Amino acid sequence: MTAERWGILRVPEDEDTETKTYFSPDRIPNMTTEDESDESGRRSGLESTPETTVEPVSSAAADGTTDRSATASAETVSDPSDAFQALGNETRMGILDTMLERTDETETGVTFSELFEASTVDTSAGFAYHLEQLVGPYLAKDGDEHYELTYAGRKIARAIATGAYTRRVDHPPISLAESCPFCGEQSLAAQATDNVVAVACENCDRSLLRLGFPPSGLESHGESFPDAFDRHHRHRLGLMAEGVCPECSGEISSELVRTAPSTDDALPSEFEEHVQAAFDCEVCGTEVRCPVSLAFLDRPEVVSLYHDHGRNVRDRPIWNVGHEWTETILSEEPLAVRVVVELEGDVLALYVDERLDVVDVQRSETNASTSEGAADAAA
Ligand SMILES: [Zn+2]
Ligand SMILES: [Zn+2]
Fold first, then answer.
1. pLDDT reading at 343 higher than 50
2. Distance 268 CA to ligand 1 centre (A)
3. pLDDT exceeds 60 at position 48
4. Which ligand is nearest to the CA of 280?
5. How many structural domains are present in the chain?
6. Is-above-0.85 flag for pTM?
7. 211 φ, ψ (degrees, to nearest 5)
8. 243 to each of 34, 190, 234, 318, 350, how far by Cα in Å?
9. Residues 228, 374: one domain?
10. Ligand nearest to the CA of 244
């Protein structure tokens, strides 16, 4: 009843054995607000509630009663100013906070008396007034006076819990193990200022990246926040490379672009002629520019190349994926790039068109030696 959990995929092993349950442990982080997959991941597959079972599509379609329209329907149910006005009150914010805490503990919703007891309001009549202001957009109420968070209620309550709107986190520089891709010195540091993490080189003064990171991420990971920051953003890039906005799930448009002049200024001359991957969401306005190579870290060909050499591509952080990556511009109009990864003479080439589609993949071994690769990775 309380929404959001992974369905349990029932996969019969053969005709008459018992069913086996699977669930996905994948957690895909989100940059600025909440992490829904984390929540539902925690609740995953351990409960075998029949109504959450995901049935094969064919059986649902075959029963003939399911009305499947080709397009989603949508309507605006509130002005943003009205929706947020309902939140401008300490008691109501407290209710959402209590709901977020209790929702995990109940299958039937939270009762009026539970919410009232958790509040600091003196009279139940006064409390009822505030509660009613949330019903509709943020809370759903059933006939038995049980309350549940709506989708919007969960979104806003979690966003507030992350501290995105209320907390500012600064963190002094932390030295990173990887060397600077520009000057080669081991002098990179990550620093957080007002919930934005910057990775820069203290030797050549170049800034490698600046990206937002939720206050909750900075606070809960402490000194190891750079690792969490790397995971967070590589998954975001992976989502965008697959056409899905990590903020709003809207459609992402991808293209190769020339670097902005300000970026060019900061780069050494050998990087003057280079292009970047650009991801744009037309729905929420999220825009990200990054090295083209970063768009392909999740490609099966890339993952298996590393695996074949006893390595894991995920061990390389996004601020320096390694000198084995090179990008060459093949065409100016339209833009096209060849991204090459080379490990111990084993060469993987991805041919990328202007829409960031990989149009060809070639792998060739020049003098590959797997045992050498494994020894190198272990060193
Ligand atoms: Zn440097
Ligand atoms: Zn978006």
1. yes
2. 10
3. no
4. 2
5. 2
6. no
7. -140, 150
8. 20, 29, 14, 19, 18
9. yes
10. 2
Q: What is the DSSP string of 18-70?
A: PP-EE--------SSS--HHHHHHHHTTTS--GGGEE--HHHHHHTS-----S
Query: 245 and 379: one domain?
Result: yes
Each residue's pLDDT tens digit, 84-113: 888 999 999 999 999 999 877 777 889 999
Q: Same domain for 127 and 246? A: no
Categorize the per-residue pLDDT at 69 as very low, low, confident or very high, splitting at 50, 70 and 90.
low
Within-domain flag for 286: yes
Structure-model confidence comparison of residues 266 and 178, the more confident one: 178
Question: Do 155 and 285 share a domain, yes or no?
Answer: no
| Whether the predicted pLDDT of 236 surpasses 90 | yes
CA of 51 relative to ligand 1 center, distance in Å = 56
Given a contact cutoff of 8 angstroms between Cβ atoms, the answer to whether 145 and 157 are in contact is: no
Question: Which ligand minimizes its atom distance to the CA of 201?
Answer: 1
Considering every ligand atom shown, identify the ligand nearest to the alpha carbon of residue 202 and give its number: 1
Same domain, 243 and 372: yes
Distance between CA atoms of residues 367 and 230, nearest Å: 32
Among residues 143, 161, 179, the one where a domain terminates is 161
Interval between CA 322 and ligand 1 midpoint (Å): 14
Q: Are residues 297 and 151 in the same domain?
A: no
Which has more pLDDT, 271 or 125?
Answer: 125
Asked if residue 270 is part of any domain, the answer here is yes
> In angstroms, what is the span from residue 253 Cα to ligand 2's centroid?
10
Average pLDDT over residues 329-354: 95
Q: Which residue, 116, 132, 161, sits at the end of a domain?
A: 161
Nearest to 357 by CA among 336, 340, 330, 331: 336
Is 16 a domain residue?
yes
**At 150, which CATH number?**
1.10.10.10
Higher pLDDT, 308 or 263: 308
Ligand of minimum distance to the alpha carbon of 204: 1
Predicted confidence (pLDDT) at residue 245 exceeds the cutoff of 90 = yes
Say how many Å lie between the CA of residue 48 and the centre of ligand 2.
33
Q: Which domain holds residue 153?
A: 8-57+78-161
Q: At what angle do helices 90-103 and 124-134 cross, to 10 degrees?
A: 70
Distance 358 CA to ligand 2 centre (A): 23
Residue 35 belongs to some domain of the structure: yes
